[in-house]
Amino acid sequence: MHAPRFRVLAALAVLLVMVMRVEAQATYDVLLRGGHVIDPRNGIDAVMDVAVAGGKIAAVRAGIDPGTAKQVVDVGGLYVTPGLIDLHVHVFATTGVRGAWAGDSSVLPDGFSFRTGVTTMVDAGSSGWRNFEDFRRTVIDRASTRVLAMLNIAGFGMLTDVPEQNIHDMDAKATADMAGRHRDVVVGIKSAHYQGPEWVSVDRAVEAGRTAGVPVMVDFGYFREERPYYKLVGEHLRPGDISTHMFRGPVPYVDADGKVLDYLTQARARGVLFDVGHGGGSFVFRTMVPATRAGFYPDTISTDLHTGSMNAGMTDMLMTMSKFLVVGMPLQKVVQASTDTPARVIKRLELGHLSVGAEADIAVLRVLDGRFGYADGARGTLAGDRRLACEMTLRAGRVVWDWNARSGTDYRELPPTYGVRDVDRIIVPPRP
Predict the structure, then answer these.
(1) CA dihedral 24, 30, 35, 36 (to 10 degrees)
(2) Is residue 196 in some structural domain?
(3) Residues within the annotated binding site for Zn(2+)?
(4) At 311, phi and psi to the nearest 5?
């Protein structure tokens, strides 16, 4: 009477041994098969396979034998890119301060990264030298997302706008010293939201950046006659420094004929970088559309992620990227501005590419065709026929987002008791 049961168990044992042998012989942990790979760093723009082993990129080429991988994921018809790098976010959500960028307006990174293909976030000045170590302890070191940081030149960072007006607490030496002590995660200095007529916030940030050997990002704050924007990008920023919120309303961009103004092309020629930093109110189609159609593309695409922007026109990284796609920026350039270039800007050349040996941070994207509406930060709208969506994200070789369950197994093919832990017992109530 036990023979059928014995035969089933024996068959399962044989199957298990076969699976173990296959896995023991497998070269790769994961194989993403048949996707269109866009890897600007390596000049790849073609249908290829991407293999992952030990959390690293193991191979990128066409025709990898699926029998060499423990897990094969069909990504045909999709785009495979390096994990996206969002250069401007606010994720210091652990201060408990109401209404502050470093507080309730920040978001915790893991809830808003992987679902949009983002594997690396750079917090743009939420903390300063006085509270950075608390930020690191409570957010950076606890996140699965790779979180890097730019230190605010204001000692307390963005605990409301008030600390960012205190020029007596803009200590270039203390800021540079803190950056030096945390060189593994601090990648820049930030000046933001300054309201006064002086250049002190910008200039001290540049001083700190020079001492620490890192770039400076400037959110220009209030646009005043005493310190015009053209002087920021033309005189005060160094090559490699970043002007974020590049399409903010007060920034003069094009002349009456739609030509990009000379001061912008001159600033770019001397090495100043332009970042999107969409935000809740720092992006207008009025300047973005003519500038982009004229070929003045952003060096880096970023979100300025916080509760106000994610619940408004910005939405997320892919929505921001899509806005440039629909007004004529080629997909390859959009990807480059979201992967390779931001990695270079923050001097983290190990990021932003799919080179063999690199950490396997990967985004699998779909380009949706249809009728879509887009909003800027000032009630302006734009219609478009394409939109990017994230199908899958891998962080260090592990699938951390899988929109359509591509990496899973049909439940009908799994053992009858799958989902039951060793410590659990299935207890069926007795029949009456």
Answers:
(1) -110
(2) yes
(3) 88, 90, 190, 245, 304
(4) -100, 15
Domain count, the chain: 1
Q: Does the CA dihedral 330-234-304-212 come out positive or negative?
A: positive
Mean pLDDT, range 202-209, rounded to an integer = 99
Domain range for 102: 84-358+368-385
Return all residues near 182 (Cβ < 8 A) that are at least 6 apart: 132, 133, 136, 149
What is the token pair recorded at 231? 């002087």
Indicate whether 163 pLDDT > 90: no
pLDDT digits (tens, 9 = 90+) for 354-408: 999 999 999 999 999 999 999 999 999 999 999 999 999 999 999 999 999 999 9
- For residue range 267-300, list pLDDT tens digits in order: 999 999 999 999 999 999 999 999 999 999 999 9
Torsional class of 295: left (φ above 0), alpha (ψ -120 to 50), beta (otherwise) = left
pTM equals 0.93
Q: Sign (positive/negative) of CA torsion 302, 304, 306, 311? A: negative
β-sheet bridge partners, residue 122: 148
The C-alpha atoms of residue 325 and residue 271 are separated, in whole angstroms, by: 24
Nearest to 353 by CA among 364, 365, 371, 341: 341
Residue 423 covered by a domain:
no
337 neighbors 300 (Cβ within 8 angstroms):
yes
Show the DSSP H helices in 152-259 as ranges: 172-181, 200-212, 229-231
71 phi/psi in degrees, rounded to 5: -135, 130
Q: 51: which residues sit within 8 A by CB, 6+ positions away?
A: 27, 28, 30, 31, 32, 57, 58, 59, 60, 64, 68, 69
Residues annotated within a binding site: 88, 90, 190, 245, 304
Give the helix, strand, coil percentages of the chain, each rounded to 5: 30, 30, 45
Tell me if 287 sits within 8 A of 245, measured CB to CB: no
In this structure, are residues 391 and 62 in contact, taking their beta carbons and an 8 Å threshold?
no
Q: Which of 205, 226, 231 is nearest to 216 (CA)?
A: 205
CATH number at residue 260: 3.20.20.140
